[in-house]
User: Fold this.
Amino acid sequence: MGTRLVMTMLADLTLDELKAYCQNIGLPNFRASQIYDAIYSGKSLSEVTNLSKEIKSLIENDYPKYKIAKTLISTDGTRKYIIEFSDGQVCESVLMKYKYGNTICVSTQIGCRMGCKFCASTLKGLLRNLSAGEILGQVLLINRDLGGSIKARQITNIVLMGSGEPLDNYDNVIKFLQLVSYEKGLDISQRNISLSTCGLVDKILMLANEKLNITLTISLHAPNDEIRKSTMPIANRYTIEEVLYACKKYIEATTRRVAIEYTLIKGVNDSRVAANQLAKLLKGMLCHVNLIPLNQVKERSLTGSSRGEAETFKKWLEEEGISVTIRRTMGQDISGACGQLRNDYLGGKL
Assistant:
């Protein structure tokens, strides 16, 4: 039996890469399969019973050490999980239960550097990217917490809408999508995965070329560049026209409908004029609009539109032939709703 040559995180590896890793340390392929199954079952190394102490000592530095540090449960059944990684950093993941199954909202970064003025995740900036295996780990841990396993999966849908800008962590996110949809792993259909971006045009065009079957979700939140620049710094780099051009290229490449996220901010983007401008932008495009009344963030001065105002805005868009729904708010009482995820649990605050 050999010695471990390089330090890696085994959850970052595909099954074939894990087999190569095992070969490098003198272990046969069947050991790779055992390690793979243990990781995808969400087990800690101490819980793995089919590996000897010698093998465990060989891989212990590389075996994933993420864990659920805390769970908060909302009155509506939504759960927010605080996931702690080996370096002591944490992220938040949210489980939402629907009639059709369980959806998990995962984070792709610890913090965020996009600076959107309605979002708590960006208040402390970007601390670091999450690796592909750390993003995957959120799914594996919560799947196990729900009583699931690699063969009896309890997670049906994934949204990459937690802390961080997924396309700002492009390579790790693409690897995660490959890992989580692999047929010998959790085998979650890419059609049941949505990726939300504030509009990194160059990365959207790259994503189109990946030929994935995921749903692209655009955090637009404004009907014109002037309003968008006032709330989203990324608008100083890319215009709405450029963002929608990239969306159309994604639609052409994948034939997938794009989702448009539009957070309604009282007195900012919820007027009849704004609705007409938004409808004009989206007319004829294969898309669906999700309206989201702004969830309160204590450090921000922005106020969300009321449910009635959201219903009115929805009616205005429908009159223009736009497909639209109002997103149901879930987990607000545990700061688990859209825009509320943050890094409050860093620095010993668990």
